[in-house]
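User: structure tokens for this one?
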Amino acid sequence: MRTLMMVGLRIVGVAGVLVVSAGCERVGEALDRARPAQPTAPTPVQLDSAGPAVPSVARGTEPAVLSSLAGWDAASSPEKEAAARYVDKQLPWMTFVGLETFSCGGQTHEIALFEHTKAGLGFSLLPAGTFEMGSKSSESGRSADEERHRVTLTRPFLICRTEVTQDGWNAIRSKNPSQFPGGQNPVETVTMIDVGRFLSRAKLSLPSEAQWEYACRAGTNKAYNYGGEPSGLGDYAWFESNSAGTTHPVARKKPNAFGLYDMHGNVLEWCRDGYHAGDGMAATDPVGAKASDVVVRGGSWQNLPTVHRAAFRLRTHPGDKHGGIGFRPIKELRAP
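Assistant:
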């Protein structure tokens, strides 16, 4: 197993400064006590679904535009809407909201947006695709377990546009465990067992590391989904320098090109993979083998910019409860 580089993670509050090895240490223990509630997030923009006639899709036939990101981008808006309505029929607890275009990091994608009818959470529909996972050897702050390799995801999936909020959690489960109260703040201080109960009731799952990184990058290949330098991080993330030691309402920063908010920062996000160092080989639909530790991604309000990179991997125990860890669920589409 490769030896990983040491990465500084600053804990704000009484915990002082904690240095964590991304390869062999777990995320820290308790954080400060609960903070005052945060203001409500702004009302989402209403989407206009009007447009040309939408082509029909034969029952049991998955639209071809869902098979690759390039194919999706090349398709017309009516073709994308037809694909979205096909998905809507497959998932009765999801409602198609409309199409919206997002640009970030030199990428522009027109995305089909959905809402989970019970939790009230927004989702983006992502087509299957192939991308370069991991970091370039020249990337500042990279660790040995980020070796770049080609990954193919064969199934499209819906992914939550934000980290699950406390309001979303309360719609499915009771007893909000969060240390930083606020209905539109991300839920945190949740173990994988806690999250599993939510996911079972909501008919969702956790993303694999590959699905998470594909969603974070949104077609880009630099350290962050907006570019290669940390200088612009404050426009996209809540992190150590701008968070004031707390989480914040979701969707207050800029989204990536898939219409996803807070992929860098606010809270780290559970993935379903057991931690493994990886071999740098090309892979199809990879999921880490079972292991005592699992992976969290994305960086949090307490972390330095290097932790917020798209390729950064942090291992922790699935039973850890931490004010810097939440989650972002997905729904993978079954093959027709």
